[in-house]
Amino acid sequence: MGTFLKIVTLNRFFAITLAPFGIFIKDKEPCRHPITLRHEITHWRQQLEMGIIFFYLWYLLEWIIKLLKYGKHAYHEISFEREAYFSQIISNYNKHRKHYIWLKLLCHDASKIRLKVNGKGREKL
Fold first, then answer.
1. Parallel, antiparallel, or unpaired for β 22-25 and 15-18?
2. Where do the H-state alpha helices sit in 23-102?
3. Domain ranges, ordered by start, for the chain
4. Cystine design at 55: which of 20, 31, 50, 102 (Cβ 3.0–4.6 Å)?
5. ω into 34 cis (within 30 of 0)
6. CA of residue 63 relative to chain centroid, distance
7. pTM of the predicted protein model
8. Distance CA 90, CA 116 (A)
9. Which of 44, 28, 23 has the alpha carbon at shortest distance from 87?
């Protein structure tokens, strides 16, 4: 699987989610990377809720638009990535995740979005 991942990611990324095939992490023991796994599970859910083809089309279009605005930082400004990075911070994020929450991140500055988790002072979108 290592060669496949190198080809698909151009050997630039540690992990990638390719629904419906799975989540691929370079390490042979992905459970050693719970933060990366949470990030990729968020992408898995995004892809399933949008439909796989539509997800990839939207991702590409949004990346092109953000590339014009943010240059080399475009990847981090994509709404899907913003949501996935929130899931890295909040360990139970994917249990309480609402569908299409990434839409809130399309045009907003991610640093200004308040997060809350279950009214316990933690944070959640």
1. antiparallel
2. 34-50, 52-70, 74-77, 79-89, 93-96
3. 33-112
4. 50
5. no
6. 13
7. 0.78
8. 10
9. 44
